[in-house]
Fold this sequence. Notes:
Chain B has 9 helices and 18 strands. By secondary structure, chain B is of the alpha+beta class.
Amino acid sequence: MTSVKTESSIIKTVGLTRSYGEICALAPLDLQVTEGEWLTIMGHSGSGKSTLLNLLGGLDRPTAGTLLVDGENLLSLSEDQLARFRRESVGIIFQQHHLIPYLTSLENVMMAQYFHSIPDAVEASLALEKVGLGKRLANRPGELSGGEQQRVCIARAIINNPKLLLGDELTGNLDHKSTHLVMELLKELHETERFTLVLVTHNQEVAGWGQRTIFMDDGTVVKDVRQGRSN
Amino acid sequence: MRRLLRGFHSIIASRAVTPIILGCFALIYIIIAFYTDETLVALMALVRSNSPLILLLSCIPVNLLAILCRETAQFSDRRHAGLSAKGLPVGTYQERVFLGTVQTGLLEKKIEQSGYHYRIKGDSCAAWKGISIFPARFLFLMGSFCLFAGILVSLTTRVSLRDVVIEGEPLPEAVGVRGRVEQITLRQHNGIILSHSLDMNIALGEGDEASVRKFGVYPPGRINGIFFYPRYLGLAPLIEFTPPESGQVFSSYIKLMIYPPGKEDGVQIPRSPYRISFTIIEPMTGAEPYITGKFNLRFKVLKGNDQVSEGTLPLGGTVSRGGYTLSFPDAKKLVAVDFVKDPGLPLLWIAGLLFLGAIVAYIPIRMFAPRREIIFIQRNGSTEVFSRAEGRAAKHRGILHNMLDHLCQSQ
Amino acid sequence: MPLLVKGLTLLILWGVLVVGLTRAFAARKSALTAGSVLGLITGTVAGFLLFGSFTGELPFAIIKSLVAVAFISLFIVAAFAWHKDPAPAITVFSPSLSDHPAVTAMAAFLTATVFAILAVCRLSNSGDNATVLAVCFILLAMVELWLVVYRLEPLLPSVLKMPRGGLPLLAVSLFLFIASSSPRLDLFSPLSMKVMKLIHDFVHQFFESMLIPDHPFFRTDVWAYIGMLFSNSVGFWGGLIIWFIPAALIAIAVFRQPLPSVAHVRQAATRRKLIAGHLRERRCLLFFPFFATILMAVAVYESGHPSVEYWDPKPIAVKADGAGTIHIPVKDGETDLKDGKLHKYIFLQGAKKVRFFVLYRSDELTVVLDACSICQPEGYGQSEGTVICYYCKTLIPLETVGKPGGCNPVPVSFTADAGGVHLSAVSLINTWNEQVQSAKKVPGGPE
């Protein structure tokens, strides 16, 4: 596996906390992620891993603490600024895909371009070719397999050249073969596009693809492992 | 001197010249409109009689011709000088980018993947797709030239004379051709635009050398450069009128412009206070009298301002009323014809055809296969890229940018 | 319209104009303010002098000509704005030349002068104390100028910029909007009438020049379509096209300017972001042309629906005596022919109907048809020293009623004495038949 040399932190949290009333989903958390790193977040259900991911992606606001992503203090951003941050700096891939069912795969990718700036069919089709779906541009999500849908989501997530790519259980609905294909694709894109990748998973095999894994329990990080994957 | 010529050429071939001149004429039109309601006619008369204005108007076809020559030269330069940079009309390209050295093999592959044709010559490569709209532009400019040249010629040289041609009578002398109107026939015609056709059979020449030519409504016939432009139909009835106070009979063919039925015209009886006005009665059956030849006239006899008699009179009939006798033994058909000498007219027709051709050429090309070009010229360790698109510019721009991204990534 | 409402409307319009001036000349606020103040003073003085020195329709004709010249100049501005690469001399209407204080001051001066003249015209002729109100208005306008330039305009979004040709368009559209509320200043109605005449003449000349056959040879349905070109609506629609051409050209010129090239940027998302920014800037340039278009559209509406009430009495039926003469007494009950109002009559003979009216003007009576020889005979109304043709909305000064030509009502021969007015029924009918459009047998063809 290619080691990624980084010098700066793209993510830095200090005492990051998220509470829902009396329930503390995320205990004060200190975390640093270097630019270009592949981080996997593991933990059982309710450990706070998805909460952390949502905070990193600007989908949720912390209750306390400091959260710096790509030099932006997300706590100080207004709603409009947060929306701009999500559009320009972050790409998110969900387990449930959230593709628009009546649009083709090309149009789904162009939607992300539309909200970022302007749609560009040529660029979108090249992005889909990059993820191996060059011949499936005109197909709607219902006509694609789970793995193909997830690949459309990947194309959609990277089309605006985000610095940070987040994935929440993105192989959760896939079989073993599709999972392998998707992870191979992510690895290839991570090497060529050089974004920082943060994946949430409970799958040990998926975690093995990354460079670093943190284990969470009750909203805190209990273990932080740097690893390599042997191919 | 060369700079002066170049300056003169750039002025005469400027696209602003024609709109400026047309704007001047529009201003003159506006000023005239304050003084008369017949503004257009007054403007035409003013231009016709004013040499500076004629000179100004003549600048338009000259300008259009100069633009045509310049754009043809640019088109030719792009086609033939495109791979040498020297002579490439850089100003006609929309984008210009500098890159480092580009591998020819990779470039060919990217161009082919994008669906463009290409041609390589040395260190330069031209890629293109679609058909140029220049042929349509050429037709349009030629049509514009013919239009304004035709207007200029027509305005300054048109001579028109209106006279009547009557069945059985010789052609008017002003035509300058010896001939005789043999027959005038009006027929129903189920055309897309015209409902009637008119045939004027005219025997040209005399004696054994006479030949019969048919003149119709459209396109108008021509003899010795003079167009026969039929305007209105009429009737030349033979009228015999006898007033009660004198036994003298007024008998003559009179020319009446009383077609279509309902239109009124009249004749002043010479050396008398009488005036008779006529209208053709529309037949109940709807059959046109001009086609059937069966005319029924309604007449009114006026003595000064007083109406002294009125009635109806069929062809071949006689009416006596209140001492007045009116006979209608015969009638000849007549047509009021404009004899027009206008050398500019063919130019105007050609202009129409050229504009039609331009539209037919332009629309499908612009919609389905507009011209897009990219030129790569390598020199001194760098690559200069020129791009232009006559249509689908956004898509072409996207292809170009992605092509450049790939080429740069591989450098 | 109440005086106060007129004044408030004009103040609002002045505020809009100042915003436009400030956006066009953002770097030269002091020159702008100085030019505008001087223009307001000059325009006010000029306006009062005009109405003080001339009477009747002349001052209105002068002001109307001023607005007309501004409207025609707008076409020249639009033509320059349309040209993609104007020479430096041509950028005189471009914001890029706003850096020169003399140009700024001159533009502001001219705009404010015309505005002030129009304001004085609208306010000072509106009744008692109107002069005082006009002066108060001008003073308030100066205060508003300072407020808008130095306090309010900086609060507006910076994306609202003035495109090339936008300032003249905004100014002229405001002038046209103000002018359209008075039939004496309105430009659209005479424009549509002239356009109608132009189209009639052009079609006629085109047919003649191209030797196209006349209507007897045409199919009726085809000729009906050609006949549409001779209808009233063709003048309206043609006038509308001409009315909006400058605004359309200036708006389209915004899109004709090529976007800055982003081909040198190698990152696709960054390129798209740059293009999106350029497109957004370009869209914002349309704000002022769009606003000007709305103003011109409202001006068209006001032109067609003037708030002036016209004196238009119901025609009184008259008969001819045994000798065929119609007699109308000078005084008959409450009717007095010499009261300065038009008096309408209708003469019926069989199926023939002839409308005419009698008017006392310039110390004498005149008798004219209630129709002219150009338009469809929809009749005339009287207001503010003029009669108006309902068909083409042309205003005819009372002094010229009785003289032939143009859209003037057709004069009728008559005699007048102490007893009244006398005219021949035959002559009346013949004049109507020969002169009035609907009575002519063949529309657009031989007469």
